[in-house]
Each structure stands twice: as C-alpha cells, then as structure tokens.
C-alpha cells in the first residue's frame, strides 16, 4: 500500500505531497491511520536540520493520533480500530537493560519517529506496538496529540524527580511545554510558580494552574523567591542566568532541563552547599505515557491547541516559526 505524506526536499523547504510505499509490517509493528498530528518545535528543528541528523525527503510529525488499521502477527494487546497515539519514539530494542527495566525512552537504539524514517504528516505511520499508546475514551482525540511529545516530556520529570504533592514547583517558560507543566504541577497538588519574561502571560498562567507569577526579566523578583522551590522545570531552549534559578531552589532541590538549552554555566558551590541537583530526561516511557493519559482524564488536563487542516501544513509551520502559536498546533486530516 502507498502512504500519502507531506515531505520537505531540503532544509527550510516547503512541504509538498509525497507518496511512498509502506514496507511489509514486522510481527511487532502496527500501521496507524493518522487522524491528527501535532507540530512540535522539534519538527521545525528537524526540518531545518538544526541537529545535523535529518534525511530528505523529510516527513515530520511525532504527535500522532489515529487508529490501528493493521497489526503484526505478534501484536496481541492492541485491537484493530483502537485509538492510539505515537510520540517521539516509535521503537525500542526491548532487550537492553533500560528496556528491560521499563525505561524504553532511554534505550541506546531507540527509534525516533522522524529520524531516518517517515513520521505522521501523512495518511499512515508505522511503529513498534510498544510505542502505540492506547488513548482513554474520556480524552478528546482531536486535542490529545501534543501530549505524546510535549506533554510526556514535562510529565516525566514529576516521576523521575519523585515530586510529592506537598512540594513547590516552578516552571520556566510558558509556551508549548510550560502551559502543560503548569497544569500537571497544579493537579499533582503542588504549589506552582510560573517564570516568564512576558508579563502579559500572567493571567493565562494563573488560569492554567500557577499560584504565583514571577517576571523572569526582573532579578529582584527572582531574588524574592530564593530558597523556596523543590523543582524548577526548565522548558525554554535558550540560556538564562542559571545561578539565579539555582538560588530559587530549597536544599535538595532540582533544576530540571527538558528544553534543548545550549551548553550552560553555573556555580558549583551553591549546588554543593545546598545538596542541589541538576537533572534532564528525554520524553518518557510507554508506561509513563499511559499513566499521563489517565492523569489527564482524571484532572481534565488538555493542551491549548490551534488547528489547521493537514493540507495547510506550510501555513501551520509559518505560524510556528513566527513564534505566535498558542500553544500547540495540531494538523487534522478530514
Ligand atoms: Zn516533540
Ligand atoms: Zn533497549
């Protein structure tokens, strides 16, 4: 069968209709008929070959929602017609130490949905069944796509850093990732502080769960929250004054990076004296993804989305490039 996709021929090029033949499905693979696909900032980085790993023609799309159209002989836990989501990862080896301990996202040979293969800006996408995550019926399928990359990326730190409801969490950057992190932190039971350089976002940040709003361009405002937070979750991808953020942590607090920040500099002595730590992680495991979806259903958590028909993919990318997306873009197939 042929898959109808949208591909870019070179860095920064427009997407154009592109047809390719689907390979025969392996025994553990599923073919998903795509209904919606979010656009993540990583799709833009890959389109532009910012990381030097893009192959062309490039078919992006790794926030995929669709139904299982066909499955390999050994796939027993998914049904034909079942609604599933596929995120950044589309396969893992299933036998290394990380896979065997439930950390498939850390597998050294993890297959990325849009690296060296074709993603979800298409009629169909193929993935290994362990990464096709069933979507609870309570969730709005048209909006849930961004949870499979953006959502999982900011949900996983709550698990990895073992955050408790009695703790205080700060979120740096109120955008595609940050607006989801605020909702998670609030529903987790934490006291939530939003850090943003855009004071105009205060009201919205509060509506998404922030108890406090700190203008991150004001050093005095940062100083005011010194020593008060257990985790500061960094969702931006630019360098900031990290010493100022380390100062906002309580002893044993965690500065947690999920944005692809360039090389950072910070003073070690405050880290030592406060027994503080720096952490980072890539998305999350399939089990964490399933837990996240259940948590979203329980607490009515959803991304704020803007929708474009998939054939308007170039308009959608222009919108993302302009920095005006509020907060996640989703492409819909009709
Ligand atoms: Zn992504
Ligand atoms: Zn593995």
TrEMBL record:
- Entry annotated with the keyword Zinc-finger: no
Name the SUPFAM superfamilies for this protein: GroES-like, NAD(P)-binding Rossmann-fold domains
Read off the InterPro entries from this record: ADH-like_C, ADH-like_N, ADH_Zn_CS, CAD-like, D-isomer_DH_CS1, ER, GroES-like_sf, NAD(P)-bd_dom_sf
Q: List each copy of the Enoyl reductase (ER) domain by range.
A: 13-331
GO molecular function terms listed in the Swiss-Prot or TrEMBL record: alcohol dehydrogenase (NADP+) activity; zinc ion binding
Enumerate the PROSITE patterns for this protein: ADH_ZINC, D_2_HYDROXYACID_DH_1
Cofactor entry: Zn(2+)
What does the record give as EC number? 1.1.1.2
CDD domains this protein is in?
CAD1
Q: Please verify whether the record's keywords include Zinc.
A: yes
Keywords of this protein's UniProt record, alphabetized? Answer: Metal-binding, NADP, Oxidoreductase, Zinc
The signal peptide annotation in the UniProt record is none
- The domain of life for this entry's organism is Bacteria
State the similarity comment.
Answer: Belongs to the zinc-containing alcohol dehydrogenase family.
By what name is this protein known?
alcohol dehydrogenase (NADP(+))
């Amino acid at each position: 069968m042929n898959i109808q996709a949208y591909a870019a021929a070179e860095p920064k090029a427009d997407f154009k209709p592109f047809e390719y033949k689907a390979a025969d499905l392996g025994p553990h693979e599923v073919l998903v008929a795509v209904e919606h696909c979010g656009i993540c900032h990583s799709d833009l980085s890959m389109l532009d070959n910012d990381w030097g790993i893009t192959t062309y023609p490039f078919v992006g799309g790794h926030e995929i929602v669709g139904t299982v159209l066909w499955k390999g002989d050994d796939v027993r836990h998914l049904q034909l017609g079942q609604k599933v989501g596929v995120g950044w990862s589309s396969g893992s080896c299933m036998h290394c130490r990380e896979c065997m301990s439930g950390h498939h996202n850390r597998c050294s040979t993890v297959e990325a949905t849009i690296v060296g293969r074709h993603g979800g800006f298409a009629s169909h996408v193929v993935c290994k069944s362990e990464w096709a995550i069933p979507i609870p019926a309570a969730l709005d399928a048209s909006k849930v796509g961004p949870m499979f990359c953006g959502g999982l990326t900011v949900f996983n730190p709550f698990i990895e850093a073992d955050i408790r409801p009695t703790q205080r969490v700060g979120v740096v950057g109120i955008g595609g990732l940050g607006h989801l992190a605020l909702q998670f932190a609030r529903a987790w039971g934490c006291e939530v502080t939003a850090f943003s350089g855009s004071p105009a976002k205060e009201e919205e940040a509060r509506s998404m769960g922030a108890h406090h709003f700190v203008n991150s361009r004001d050093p005095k405002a940062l100083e005011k929250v010194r020593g008060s937070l257990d985790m500061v979750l960094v969702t931006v991808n630019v360098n900031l004054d990290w010493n100022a953020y380390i100062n906002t942590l309580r002893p044993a607090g965690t500065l947690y990076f999920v944005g692809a920040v360039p090389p950072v500099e910070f003073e070690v002595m405050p880290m030592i004296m406060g027994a503080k730590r720096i952490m980072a992680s890539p998305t999350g495991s399939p089990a964490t993804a399933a837990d996240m979806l259940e948590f979203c259903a329980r607490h009515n958590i959803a991304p704020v989305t803007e929708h474009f028909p998939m054939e308007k993919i170039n308009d959608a990318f222009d919108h993302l490039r302009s920095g005006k997306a509020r907060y996640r873009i989703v492409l819909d197939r009709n």
